[in-house]
């Protein structure tokens, strides 16, 4: 009977350890996404309008999550003593990062839905704004993550979808030059 109780206690501590690991990676990922978005100028992913606030909060979240995880309890535990084995750790890491990305996109899309391009950016002479003006002249959306500089995630996704599947006659003709010899 005692052996069964110890097994239940070990299983319970492993679940707690796994949940703590998931929370740590989730919160740290939220912080890293905010810090990276503020450094990269991706205003569509920022929770706060000011990049310095988002960067400071992001760095604090990332560091705070790691400090919390290792300061609360002994975390150097082998997988056969109640810790996570590498497969479980990889799965929890992936799920936590994916959940942080999904939450960031879901949270910032309504917050930044009024984010629009600054039409005066074309007047300045820096290379980035000239590149943006060139994309604006062709009526093509900014490719990839660049679209998040001036629009929310949802706006960028719908704009890119509309361009590639409706406005650009056929997306296959647009990418043909990359695949034909």
Write a short abstract of this structure:
The chain has helices at residues 2-40, 51-72, 86-111, 127-137, 153-167, 171-179.
Can you put this structure into words, describing what you see?
There is one protein chain. The protein is globular and about 60 Å long. With 181 residues, it is mainly alpha-helical. The chain contains six helices and no strands. The chain folds into two domains: 110 residues; 61 residues, no CATH class.
List keywords for this structure.
181 residues; mainly alpha; globular; 2 domains
The best one-word shape is globular
Unreliable stretches: 118-126
**What is the oligomer described by this structure?**
single chain
- How large, in whole angstroms, is the Cα Rg? 22 Å
Which H/E pattern describes the elements?
Answer: HHHHHH
Helix content: 55-70%
Structural class: mainly alpha
- Number of strand segments: 0
Proportion of residues in β-strands: under 5%
What is the averaged pLDDT score?
Answer: 78
Termini Cα gap: 72 Å
Q: Work out the helix count.
A: 6
- Major beta sheet, specifics? none
Domain count: the total is 2
């Amino acid at each position: 009977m005692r052996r069964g109780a110890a097994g239940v206690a070990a299983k319970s501590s492993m679940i707690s350890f796994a949940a703590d690991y998931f929370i740590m990676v989730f919160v740290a990922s939220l912080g890293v996404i905010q810090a990276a978005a503020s450094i990269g100028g991706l205003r569509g992913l920022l929770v706060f309008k000011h990049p310095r606030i988002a960067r400071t909060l992001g760095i604090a979240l990332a560091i705070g999550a790691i400090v919390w995880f290792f300061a609360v309890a002994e975390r150097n535990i082998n997988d056969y003593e109640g810790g996570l084995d590498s497969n479980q750790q990889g799965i929890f890491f992936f799920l936590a990062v994916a959940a942080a990305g999904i939450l960031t996109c879901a949270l910032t899309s309504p917050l930044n839905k009024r984010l629009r391009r600054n039409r005066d950016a074309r007047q300045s002479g820096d290379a980035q704004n000239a590149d943006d003006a060139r994309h604006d002249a062709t009526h093509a959306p900014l490719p990839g993550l660049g679209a998040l500089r001036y629009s929310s995630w949802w706006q960028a996704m719908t704009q890119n979808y509309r361009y590639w599947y409706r406005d650009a006659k056929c997306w296959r003709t647009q990418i043909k030059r990359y695949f034909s010899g």
